[in-house]
Amino acid sequence: MNLSNTENEFKDKLRILKKESGLHSASVNEIEFVLNTKIKIDACFLCNPYSQKLAYRWLGKDIKKQLQHYPPSNSFLAKHIGIWRNLDPSKIIVGNGAIELIYLLLNTIKQKKIVIPIPSFSTYYELLEKDNQILYFKLSADHEYRIDIYSFIEFIQRENPDYVILINPSNPSGQILYPDDIKLIHSLLKTNQVLIIDESFIDFADLDASIEYYADNQENIVIIRSLSKDFGLAGLRLGYSLMPHRIKEQLNVSSFLWNINGLASIFCTYLSNEKFILEYNKCRLRYIEDKKAFYGQLCKLPVKVYDSSANFFLIKPEVLAEDLFVRLLYKYGIYSRLLNDKIGLDKNYLRIASKTEIENKKIINALNKELS
Fold first, then answer.
1. Nearest 5°: phi and psi at 20?
2. Helix (H) or strand (E) holding 113
3. What is the share, in percent, of the chain residues with pLDDT greater than 90?
4. 3 state DSSP class of 192
5. How many Cβ atoms sit within 10 Å of the Cβ of residue 133?
6. How far apart are CA 34 and CA 142, in angstroms?
7. Are 368 and 301 spatial neighbours (Cβ–Cβ below 8 Å)?
């Protein structure tokens, strides 16, 4: 693939913008403003577009009421999540996005040994590497970046870490560990070793793979979950964490009186509404079917595609991934995620989110034109 001079100039500007954004992607607003381009399909943001429309419909009728009143307390919102997930609300903290909870929790971890499989969501090791010893468990492309459970357990037992962190399903590979495997890992941990599991993509798995109900009865498991992916509401900033009381008490919960804004708060109350959750589950199942069809179409292209239990796919093209990333954005307005900064991957991968059925067809058509 040969980029034009204009596309190469565009690529240089993208590199500058990426450098300013750190290890995370530049936002749609930043790209459109700085590069004067229009993003038609955001295949970088990992969300369910169908439940996004559902959320808009419900929020529309409550905006006025929520903007004129103070939002409710964190503990009140935790009760609604507890009803939805059938969990003890006293163990739940609601966050301004999952990232707030990740920051809060990891800030309590100092001078510890932490095991993290890689490639992984970079925020965890970014926040921990300065004050802790990170022990990377490197996953292999030859094994589809899947965790070999027995090799992983052997690694944990040999290194004897204080914490084990899992992203499940993994980001960026989309690989998953099912509950029996996680229970096995947990059963072999000592009581003073803590298992942290990020389940932000768990609702996109074919089967119910969440470990929440099991974790609710354990004293050394923390679950973190973003709700922006499930409902397509990144700007709303909403997530939650389920954790043992002894860990929750270490956090500065005094700052959590009004950390959730009014719109996010009213949305949180929908989670205990049976009608809303029934509609959400229909959206979720529809999206999973679209995702499966998208995977089938991707597999027909001349790229390596990794099967995924999340709502995105890791792909390795035969051409330079950065050039393909630029071409998709510049020519088609399709924004994907270039992964040349991920520890544990070489520099030739893209991550592409599944979108609506119509948008997925447009992504496939663009890839087909550029790769055939």
1. -70, -25
2. strand 113-118
3. 78
4. coil
5. 14
6. 39
7. yes
